[in-house]
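Q: Hi! First time doing this. I have a protein sequence and I read that you can turn it into a structure. Is that right? Here it is:
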Amino acid sequence: MINNELIRLHFRSICTAGDMTAYDELYRLLYSKLVHFSAAIVGSFHLAEEIVSDVFIIIWQKRQELAAVENPVVYIYVSTRNRSLNALQQQKRHRYTSLELLDTDALAMSPDPEHSMISVEIIQKIEMAIRSLPDRCQLIFRLVKQDGLRYKDVAELLDISPKTVDAQLAIAVKKVAAAIRLDMPLELAQAFLFH
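A: Yes, that's right. Below is the predicted 3D structure, encoded as structure tokens:
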């Protein structure tokens, strides 16, 4: 789960004081989530790792110019999205540069100690339910529920309205909840889906 305040604090320390420790911490907090996000767009974890590394290098190089950025999480995700789409275009590997055609396998859940009460079997059922969602619905669910982005941030990132995010998330939660309801106590299912 992304802690917006902690990220904002580290980002400000980087931009105003050139704080390398804050930079390392920001990298540690976001790297894995950004690699999965980028890999969903470019279809390659190796390329996604390069893209995310480039995004962080640019953040360090332009740190003084970025001091005015109000929402660092959205800025970093949008930068990653844009570099990912540009990489696709440059490589001419695909004829599209749309978020509609994602490699949803790259978005798959990774084990999270926070959910250790949930068995591996149930996590697999949850993952199968998430994968059965339409691509955009799946992406919205993962950005909100796994990465912890706010509705407004996801709307800005995907260039859609917050109401669309809300509607897509409602569809996703309903489908995922239906898939797992039979296998876990209601409280546990709600804790997982609504944290």
